[in-house]
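Appendix B, Record 12. Input sequence as logged:
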Amino acid sequence: MLVLRRKANQAIVIGRDIRVLVVGIDRDYVKLGIEAPRDVQVHRSEVLEEILRSAGAQPGLDEAACRSRAGESSTIGGEKRRLKSTSSERTSS
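Logged structural output:
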């Protein structure tokens, strides 16, 4: 695991297409903005676990196969697909 330090308004880049920006820091929470291509699904880990659980995840069955079996789309759980770095408050619950 790569561990990086970033301050508010600093970003990291994954590959050439994914940018993760530290939008804000408040006590124990870090607010991240994620810019990624539409074909890259972005989920909080607990949301992905629920998707896999509801799809009947089996050992060796990959995430895409589980999503396909569950008929899920790229807007699972009402999560926003792309977050832009703005000063306005955004949440994905």
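The radius of gyration is 15 Å.
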